[in-house]
Automatic annotation (TrEMBL):
Coiled coil: none annotated. Component of the sarcoglycan complex, a subcomplex of the dystrophin-glycoprotein complex which forms a link between the F-actin cytoskeleton and the extracellular matrix. Residues 335-366 are annotated as: Disordered. GO terms for molecular function: calcium ion binding. It comes from Hipposideros armiger. This is Alpha-sarcoglycan isoform X2. Residues 1-23 form the signal peptide. Keywords: Cell membrane, Cytoplasm, Cytoskeleton, Glycoprotein, Membrane, Signal, Transmembrane, Transmembrane helix. The chain crosses the membrane at residues 290-312. It is found in: Cell membrane, Sarcolemma; Cytoplasm, Cytoskeleton. GO terms for cellular component: cytoskeleton; sarcoglycan complex; sarcolemma.
Length: 366
């Protein structure tokens, strides 16, 4: 009862805050095929005067969803390490996601249960500039997804990757947590990270170093537990520990061949040495086969039925003949005597009960 009295004012304050909060609106412009990252900072959602700094220990959690729906769009993800860290909305829109999407974000202050609403208007359009047909994806095991979403670590990764991919300008295409790709949660040991997949693209072809990493020889060495072939200096180390056995290269400069439309045939199989069906089938009369299949079991069943009826009904010998052929001692005929011959219980002179046997039974036993 006391717990209910404590939660009633808290819930009423939460509902009051939700009803009286005016949603802020921000317009953003994500691009198709490019990574979109929006940071949910505590300073944006806390109602504090301008001269008051945001307490670093204020715990705030966020809830984001597409307007009119309970969840986010399929291309957008949300992550937050803890209530004391900022939240991130990130993802890469596809051509099917072009247009206007509204994301509603609600921030909860875990200290005083204040709530703040924010509306993000996403105007998704096509990117400008040349196409990016050359794409490479790297598995970075030394970072979590929250550590590479800010602009500074992402720019540092692109700069370090420029030493391996010297030609052209690199673009960050997608960032995905290794847990979303089937990875396991690491043990709570210092230095263990979840891992993150980073996809980078460029309008220039792959360098010789990247081609050698993704070659069949390198994959064979990785299958044997050996490090892959790397003909250049690893400029990503030591800040980014890349798993070079999980590097994938995609070349979209060559258009994929269109799927051939199947041509309907006439329904007749072509001549084959292993399948030569007869051209003509002779006419057959299946009446005899049907009669044999049905009548033979019925005749056998009828004969067995007649035999069983003869044995059960015509071969009975009768009780009298059975009693005459059976010895009196084995038959125990004293149990089958008529009611007037039933033995009566008597008492002997000594006071103990006795049994008076009929004369017929006494004579037989003698």
């Amino acid at each position: 009862m006391a717990a209910a009295l404590i939660w009633i004012p808290l819930l009423s304050g939460l509902l009051t805050g939700l009803g009286g909060t005016k949603a802020q609106q921000t317009t953003l412009h994500p691009l198709v095929g490019r990574i979109f990252v929006h940071t949910l900072d505590h300073e944006t959602f806390l109602h504090l005067p301008e001269h008051v700094a945001v307490p670093p220990t204020t715990p705030i959690t966020y809830q984001a969803h597409l307007q009119g729906y309970p969840d986010l769009p399929r291309w957008l993800r949300y992550t937050q390490r803890s209530p004391h860290h900022p939240g991130f909305l990130y993802g890469t829109p596809t051509p099917e996601d072009r247009g206007r999407q509204v994301i509603e974000v609600i921030a909860y202050n875990r200290d005083n249960f204040d709530t703040t609403r924010q509306r993000l208007v996403l105007l998704i359009g096509d990117p400008e500039g040349p196409l990016i047909p050359y794409q490479a994806e790297f598995l970075v095991r030394s970072h979590d997804v929250e550590e590479v979403l800010p602009s500074t670590p992402a720019s540092r990764f692109l700069t370090a990757l420029g030493g391996l991919w010297e030609l052209g300008e690199l673009q960050l295409l997608n960032i995905t947590s290794a847990l979303d790709r089937g990875g396991r949660v690491p043990l709570p040991i210092e230095g263990r990270k979840e891992g993150v997949y980073i996809k980078v693209g460029s309008a220039s072809p792959f360098s010789t170093c990247l081609k050698m990493v993704a070659s069949p020889d390198s994959h064979a060495r990785c299958a044997q537990g050996q490090p892959p072939l790397l003909s250049c200096y690893d400029t990503l180390a030591p800040h980014f520990r890349v798993d070079w056995c999980n590097v994938s290269l995609v070349d979209k400069s060559v258009p994929e061949p269109a799927d051939e439309v199947p041509t309907p045939g006439d329904g007749i199989l072509e001549h084959d040495l292993f399948f030569c069906p007869p051209t003509e089938a002779p006419a057959r009369d299946f009446l005899t086969d049907a009669l044999v299949t049905l009548l033979v079991p019925l005749l056998v069943a009828l004969l067995l039925t007649l035999l069983l009826a003869y044995i059960m009904c015509c071969r009975r010998e009768g009780r009298l003949k059975r009693d005459l052929a059976t010895s009196d001692f084995a038959l125990g005929s004293w149990q089958r005597l008529p009611p007037q011959s039933t033995p009566r219980s008597t008492r002997k002179p000594g006071g103990q009960p006795g049994r008076k046997w009929p004369r017929q039974v006494a004579g037989r036993m003698a």
